[in-house]
From TrEMBL:
Name listed for the protein in its UniProt record: Transcriptional regulator
Pfam families: MerR_1 (PF13411)
InterPro entries recorded: DNA-bd_dom_put_sf, MerR-type_HTH_dom, MerR_fam
Superkingdom per UniProt: Bacteria
Keyword annotations from UniProtKB, A to Z: DNA-binding, Transcription, Transcription regulation
Record bears the keyword Protein transport: no
Family matches, as PROSITE patterns: HTH_MERR_2 (PS50937)
GO molecular function, one term: DNA-binding transcription factor activity
Domain HTH merR-type intervals: 1-72
Length: 244
């Protein structure tokens, strides 16, 4: 193989000649010198070494870590460690992508102040213990005292004749309320205070689509639509749903 100059190596790897010289000074690269002009010349083994080093640096290993690994002839274990590290980062990115997708999709799906129809699977809810309820909200300081530190977002179950019951999602076996699978009327709206919620409930129940006045009393759900709220700087979006 034709020997390469430092400039040719820099072009090959799209890095500066300064960086190559830095690797030489650190003992990571050990090219030969031209006997006549004393310039560094790089052979095939140097190309492989620089490829190793560039890859490890891209992954996030420090110069010191690479030096130590080369001294111990331990490159293989570094790549094995890198495989785990990169997969961990990929998993984090995929989780972040999933959240971003939910936020973006929620903006398309839930049009504010408009009744839409959504298909839901069966959902089960369990009433929260009265000790941690303050008004119609969770008192998180009391929840911590009860060692209930992994609370999900609350759902509020109402009917026309009862005040809000604060619940969390649960399994069917231990549930107090079961909302069957099917088509639900859903309306999302911005909330600034409790009066906004009361007005929206009234508007929702009087909507001709719901037509609840001429049928048996039905329970409905209100909850903060987290993924809708996350798209705004200073707004909270709530959704109300009732099975048709």
């Amino acid at each position: 193989m034709k020997q390469l100059t430092a400039g040719e190596m820099a072009k090959l790897f799209n890095i500066s000649k300064y960086k190559i010289r830095h690797y030489i000074d650190k003992g990571i690269l050990e090219p030969k010198r031209n006997k006549e002009n004393k310039y560094y010349v790089f052979e095939e083994s140097d190309i492989y070494r620089l490829y190793q080093v560039s890859t490890l640096r891209e992954i996030g290993f420090s110069i010191k870590e690479i030096q130590e690994s080369l001294a111990l002839d331990n490159i293989k274990s570094m790549f094995e460690e890198a495989e785990v590290k990169v997969q961990r980062e990929i998993n984090k990115l995929l989780a972040t992508q999933k959240i971003i997708n939910k936020i973006v999709d929620s903006q398309r799906k839930y049009e504010l102040n408009k009744v839409i129809f959504v298909e839901r699977e069966e959902r089960c809810f369990k009433k929260l213990m009265e000790q941690i309820i303050e008004g119609d909200s969770i008192d998180y300081s009391k929840a911590i005292e009860q060692e209930l530190v992994h609370l999900d977002e609350p759902y509020f179950i109402l009917s026309e004749k009862q005040s809000a019951i604060v619940c969390l999602k649960s399994t069917k076996e231990c549930s107090d309320y079961v909302f069957p699978a099917g088509t639900y009327a859903c309306k999302s709206f911005v909330v600034e205070n409790k009066i906004d919620i009361e007005n929206q409930i009234s508007d929702f129940l009087s909507d001709s689509i719901i037509n609840v006045r001429d049928s048996e009393i039905k329970e409905f759900i209100i909850y903060e639509n987290i993924y809708c709220s996350l798209a705004y700087n200073d707004k909270m979006v709530y959704s109300i749903e009732m099975k048709l």
